[in-house]
Structure formats: structure tokens, C-alpha cells
Amino acid sequence: MLKNSMKIKNILSTSLIILFFLLGLILLIAVIMGVPYIVNNIGNITNIVSGVGMFVLGVIYFIMIILLLEIVSSSKINIFIDANVKRFRQIGYLLFLNLIMDYVSMLFNGVTGIRFIDVAPGIFITPGMTIYFIAGLLCFVIADAFNQAIKIKNDNDLTI
User: 124 with 51: CB under 8 angstroms?
Assistant: First the structure.
């Protein structure tokens, strides 16, 4: 492996590990502080839904970081494995889930910021939603590319 690619992989791995621990700490604090917040706002459904939604969003990002760490760690042996295809697809589904949660959150709290498309009340597209959509599709494309690479590798292994 090239010297520069090893450096980049190490930087990526270190960054993901730092994000893993920071987000884990934030989620732990959110649980500790979130329970009293929910108890104090038991009558205000909008605040409770917003708080729980933000926590679920943090958990989804936490899961995505774990999946990315597993992909990076598998690259030490061989990155083109079926498990990585599955991981990229899982990340794609999680990004689509984030898109849906972002949309529902904006329906509850109101749309803030720029909107690309605003057809009618409740029908809109924001830049964040667009990024989730494109990144999710990109993960599926990468998963398919990995799957094709695995098939080619298996065919080459059978060739004498």
C-alpha cells in the first residue's frame, strides 16, 4: 500500500475514533439530562418529540460511525468483502432514515433556513434533505461497486 494512503487511512481512523468517543459522551449526557427534561415538559408534546428525535438522530450517527470504523479496520486485510457491502447499504438506509426524521422534525418545528423547493405547506425540500438523499444513494452505489469487485475477484481466483 502506498505511503500516503496509509497516512490518510490512519487520519480517517483516528478521526472516526475521536468522533466515536465524543458522540458517545454526548449521548450519555443527553440521557442523563434528557430524562429530567422529558419529565418537566410532560405536557408539551412538541418539545418531547423534538428532544427524542434529536437523541435518535445522535444514535443513528453513532451507528454510522461504528459501521465506518468497521469498514476502515477491514481494509487492513481486504476491503472488498461481503460484510462491507452490507455495511455500506446499512449506512445508506440510515441516511434515508435521517432524511425522513429531518422532514418530520421540520413539520413539527417549522422549516428554518433555505428551501430548494417549497410547493405548499408541508411539501418542501431543504439542502440538508438533499445531502442526505445524495449521500444515501452514493452509499448504495459504493455497495454495488464493492459487490461487483467481489464477483470479479472471485472469478479471477478461479482462473488458473
Answer: no
